[in-house]
């Protein structure tokens, strides 16, 4: 990881989320997210910190191997935008660390909303001045819960923790990815969210 | 499980889904769902078949212990509708078996769409003539991926399969729940889906 903040990373300077703290608390309860998960995610952050580039290699390899996914990093006529991929990659790495270390406060809620917006017609491409397609369909936001969760487990097991500890970190990660995906979808469907 | 089909269960007699087979195939690829998962889900079906009521006890216990969740089985002023809970419970049990055994064909796609509709303002409460609130918010549809996935694992391990086999069944279940949730959200956000 670079020590420079990634280009376009705006944590701490985005507007308040329309999602309330009470709505967040109820979502946390629904995914069974507790103070233990906060601790387990911190441990996961220590485990993952020097593996971030390897994780991103797996995720980018997955996207690159599926034309219907790499299309979201391409122009409408299919030219892949390498600079866009590279810029998003830096923020994706930062997101791994933020998922593990950031407290679930107003700033976190605000930036989760910003991440959602950046996948919709409202803000996709803007941050990176990318000439890509206008949004990422909601269905892929949900579907990504699976690969983003399942692929993290081997990395959590790479530092010699016992199986029970790895499993706890993995479950905390799964809860957080599910919770964040729910938050990211607010701008996709404000009326039914 | 009763041998009678559950009240309101309309598998095989619902209109075609707006989701195409091609869109389904791309979603399956995104959650890494393969022919191996079909086999692992079948095995899971055999494992879970005589545990369905116990699984439903866990899920209903979870909902019942959270006022913000049981509200979706209650009137707008908070009176819990026991008959509605009981009728949905039967179909929920059937859904476990369908998840394990039904092929991903046009009928399956159609009924997945029907399930989605029955959580939205379009069709919630209709099947059961329930006097409940008008929809289940999209965010809880996503959040439920976690409890519906995580709680199934002990049941998959109850029949003496080795750890690797249990894990394969569990991952197939996780993929299917994620995939189906993506499908269920189409009527929530047809424009951005």
Automatic annotation (TrEMBL), chains A, B:
<protein>
    <submittedName>
        <fullName>Protoglobin domain-containing protein</fullName>
    </submittedName>
</protein>
<feature type="domain" description="Globin-sensor">
    <location>
        <begin position="22"/>
        <end position="191"/>
    </location>
</feature>
<dbReference type="InterPro" id="IPR012102">
    <property type="entry name" value="Protoglobin"/>
</dbReference>
<dbReference type="InterPro" id="IPR009050">
    <property type="entry name" value="Globin-like_sf"/>
</dbReference>
<dbReference type="Pfam" id="PF11563">
    <property type="entry name" value="Protoglobin"/>
</dbReference>
<dbReference type="InterPro" id="IPR012292">
    <property type="entry name" value="Globin/Proto"/>
</dbReference>
<dbReference type="InterPro" id="IPR044398">
    <property type="entry name" value="Globin-sensor_dom"/>
</dbReference>
């Amino acid at each position: 990881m670079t020590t420079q903040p990634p280009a376009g990373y705006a944590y701490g300077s985005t507007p308040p989320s329309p999602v309330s703290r009470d709505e967040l608390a109820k979502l946390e309860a629904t995914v069974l997210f507790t103070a233990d998960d906060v601790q387990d995610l911190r441990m996961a952050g220590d485990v993952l910190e020097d593996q971030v580039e390897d994780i991103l290699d797996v995720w980018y390899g997955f996207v690159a191997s599926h034309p219907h996914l790499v299309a979201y990093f391409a122009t409408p006529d299919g030219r892949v935008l390498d600079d866009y991929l590279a810029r998003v990659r830096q923020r994706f790495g930062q997101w791994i660390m933020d998922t593990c270390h950031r407290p679930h406060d107003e700033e976190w809620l605000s930036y989760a909303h910003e991440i959602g917006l950046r996948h919709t017609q409202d803000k996709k491409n803007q941050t990176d001045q990318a000439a890509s397609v206008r949004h990422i369909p909601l269905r892929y936001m949900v579907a990504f819960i699976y690969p983003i969760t399942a692929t993290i487990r081997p990395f959590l097991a790479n530092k010699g923790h016992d199986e029970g500890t790895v499993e706890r970190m993995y479950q905390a990660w799964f809860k957080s990815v599910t919770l964040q995906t729910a938050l990211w979808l607010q701008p996709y469907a404000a009326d039914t969210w």
